[in-house]
Write a structure and sequence with these properties.
Chain A is α/β, with parallel strands linked by helices. In chain B, 21% of the residues lie in helices and 18% in strands. A two-stranded antiparallel ribbon of chain B has the order 2-5. The chains are: A alpha/beta, B alpha+beta. At the A-B interface, helix 1, strand 2 and helix 9 of A face strand 1, helix 2 and helix 4 of B.
Chain lengths: 298, 110
């Protein structure tokens, strides 16, 4: 297992909320990729976290782009590097977008980038809503969650649609490498990012980054939540390499989803039968994933 | 191809960023010459303060690994918190395997 490198390319003085999962997501990503990286960021939490002029927070070149353009901007950066004759193995181009900038608003640019086969790493750090603008629902918000646009109170209008499965969407593009990872396992994260770095072509990375502000959880529970999401199989850690599935971190003992839901305020309103429904759905998805692993390995 | 970025001095940060008298004080410069640690001191956000008991510390580095603000470092004589930047989230105290870090109210220290 890879050790967490000492190098720090993310400085202190970020304006992230206390206990931010996205902060660690960027920190580990840059530790794994090193200094020869160009990153581009659309409107998302990470557009705010580096701070205001003239502050810089990352020790690498950073390009801000429009919300829907991460994939296109990554393709542009790569095309410019190719035109200058830079070896693709020398510089890594990363598109670092939130779940809105990847799964909802940015999906057409991402789809185009992957379809063209551009050599980039497209990262989705998933905090399961538009947290930067004030906790509005996104395609990645899970079933049953409260957000400001799916309110609970006199009307129990929690989110009724399931979470969008970006890994399957990316797999349908025939992507060479797609992987999910969690900030609770930095060593595994670094190992998998370094693996992605060495593969030519488009790569998709789905990082699970809990948000204490939007999930109404205690800031100190961020890592615990990320770990519980893996142990309850709500967010399984797996990779798809040219269509072949592999679960690289199986929970030792499957924990009931209830334990994961009860430490988050955004699921507080859910009645018992809804919790059971979520549990059933999680079990079904986990079984499906294991079958996919079995089917594709043969 | 390689160009070194000059880092602002503390006086320049104060004159240009914190207390500019006039818009003419703000230079047309690269956006990259003021690292965030010179101007954003996030330690003032803290409501809980981590206190390390270095007698118990086993120097495993887990607190350093999980700190989202890179504000705790493990040195030879134990873990040391950088109170200038620590936001007091408490992840270090929660993840510490030997409970060497406890969170206390910040108001008792101000």
């Amino acid at each position: 297992m890879a050790k967490v490198p000492e190098i720090e390319l993310m400085f202190q003085g970020t304006t992230a909320c206390p206990g931010c999962g996205a902060g660690n997501a960027m920190r580990y990503l840059l530790k794994a990729l090193g200094k020869n990286t160009i990153i581009n960021i659309p409107a998302c939490c990470w557009a705010v976290i580096p701070g205001v002029y003239p502050s810089r927070n990352l020790d690498i070149p950073l390009l801000y782009n429009a919300f829907e353009a991460t994939g296109a901007a990554s393709s542009g950066v790569r095309a410019a590097l190719n035109a200058k004759g830079v070896d693709p193995r020398e510089i890594t181009v990363v598109g670092f977008a939130g779940d809105g900038g990847t799964a909802d608003i940015g999906i057409q640019a991402l789809s185009g980038c992957v379809e063209r086969g551009t050599d980039t790493i497209q990262v989705m750090y998933d905090n399961e809503a538009y947290m930067n603008t004030g906790i509005q629902r996104s395609g990645e918000t899970p079933y049953g969650a409260w957000t400001t646009t799916t309110p609970v109170g006199s009307k129990q209008a929690w989110k009724k649609a399931p979470k969008k499965n970006m890994m399957e969407i990316m797999n349908a593009h025939g992507i060479p490498y797609a992987v999910t990872m969690s900030i609770a396992y930095p060593e595994l994260m670094i190992e998998k990012i370094q693996k992605a770095k060495d593969i030519l072509g488009p790569k998709f990375v789905h990082i699970y980054a809990p948000c204490p502000t939007g999930w109404r959880s205690n800031p100190s529970d961020t890592v615990e939540l990320a770990r519980l999401a893996v142990d309850t199989c709500v967010f399984p850690l797996y990779e798809i390499e040219n269509g072949v599935y592999n679960v690289y971190k199986k929970p030792k003992k499957k924990v009931p989803v209830k334990d994961y839901l009860k430490i988050q305020g955004r699921f507080r309103h859910l009645p018992e039968e809804e919790v059971e429904r979520i549990q059933k759905n999680v079990d079904l998805e986990w079984e499906k994933l294991l079958k996919k692993v079995k089917f594709t390995k043969e | 191809m390689k160009s070194e970025v000059r880092i602002m001095t503390k006086e320049e940060v104060y004159r240009i960023v914190i207390d500019p008298k006039d818009h003419r004080d703000v230079p047309l410069t690269f956006i990259t010459d003021c690292p965030s640690y010179l101007m954003t001191k996030t330690g003032s956000w803290r409501t809980l303060r981590p206190i390390v008991d270095n007698e118990k510390c086993i120097k495993c580095g887990i607190c350093w690994k999980f700190c989202p603000d890179v504000s705790i470092h493990v040195k030879d004589d134990g873990a040391e918190v950088d109170y200038e930047f620590c936001k007091g989230c408490g992840i270090c105290a929660k993840e510490c395997p030997v409970d060497a870090i406890i969170m206390e109210k910040e108001e008792d220290y101000v």
